[in-house]
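Task 17 of the worksheet. Students: predict the tertiary structure of the chain below and write it out as structure tokens. Keep your answer in the requested format; marks are given for formatting as well as content.
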Amino acid sequence: MSIDIISPVKPSSVNNFSMAKNIQRSALSSFQGVMLSLAQASVDPAGAINNLLMQGKINEWNTWRMDNPNVQITMTAEDLSGRDFTGADLSGITFNQCQLRTCNLTNANLSKSVFRDTSLQQSNFFNAKMDHANLVNVEAAGSCFARTDFSSAIMSSVNFGSNTAYGPSKMDGSNFSSAVLDKVRFTNSSAANSKFQNSKITNSEMNSTNLGQTNFQNAYLANVSISQSNLDCASFKNAVLSSVNFGNIVDNGVLRYSPSRLTNTDFSYATVQNVRYASVNMARSNFQYSKIINSELNGANLTQTNFQSASLKNVSAAQCNLDYAYFKLASLTSVDLSRSSAYRANMEQSKINAVNLSNCNLQYSSFKQAVLTDCNLSYSQMQGTLQTNASYTRIILVKSILTGIDLSATVFNCCDLSLSNVQNSRISRRKLAGCNISGWITNRTIFVA
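Model answer:
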């Protein structure tokens, strides 16, 4: 054990006088023993550790730390396992290659502490303060970090998940706001109702983790795996996500993790790039004003999801459930929505460019004032859709079903409507400039000027 003193310790007479005033209030039977410990501690900082902290005299230890704020303590290769440090002031202490297994650190102050190559397994850090702490190569499986404050902490190669010897940690209600996390493993742990806002999370694993109602607002996530996790009602508002996987993980043909669950999750104003949501349940989630780029949503459940004013570019979202989805004022460019169901979806005033909507169920959806360019809607079902003042340019509508629709205010420019079914619809001939209408079915179709 080594102890570095940054500035001289206060004179022992001052310390003894201060300590004596507190000791007078204690029981007479312990007076001499406490006086001896404090006298030793005031002269020798190592004595404070050996005679106060290691003896479980936490109140006296905390008083000594308060009176000696400039003593910098470094512990190396110390085995502190099984000790009770409840409420202890361990702030600023450096632990190198130490063992803190099965310790009780409830309500302890570990602010600005440093942990290097240290084991924290099966310990209780409930409601502990670890803000601005630095953790490097730390094993923390099987511990309780519920309501622990990790705000502004820096972590690298830390494991909170299960390992071969211990189960995962419990981290519900913990605070990682403004923390920097690299190569941190949360797999199989529980961190529901935790705070990660303004944090930076890179090269990390959160697979099979309970993150329900967790706050990731304004966070930055890159190269993070979050498969088979519960993220219901979580918030990624204004977050940046790059190369994040919420979908399944298959290893050598064997399913390791199934897709995560993100119902009622908030991605509004988020920037999402190279993110995988394949087969994820995101019903009733919010992507308002978000930017989704080069991402995969194939097979996702997006029922009643809000994409108002969102921007989607180079997105694969085939075979999705988009029933009752809301795309008003959205911008879609080079998006594959083929074989999806968008029953009663709202696409009003949206800009849809180079989008594949072939074989889609678009029944009773609204394209009011939408602008579609270079899209493929062949074999789509569009009966009952609202098309008021919509504009179609170079659209493929081969064998589409457009029955029972008022298309009289819809402009078709250079579109392929061949073999389409427009029975019982209203169509303006002068708004079919350059269109191919060969072979279309027009029984009871009303053509207006």
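Marker's comment: The longest helix spans residues 31-43. DSSP finds four helices and 23 strands in the chain.
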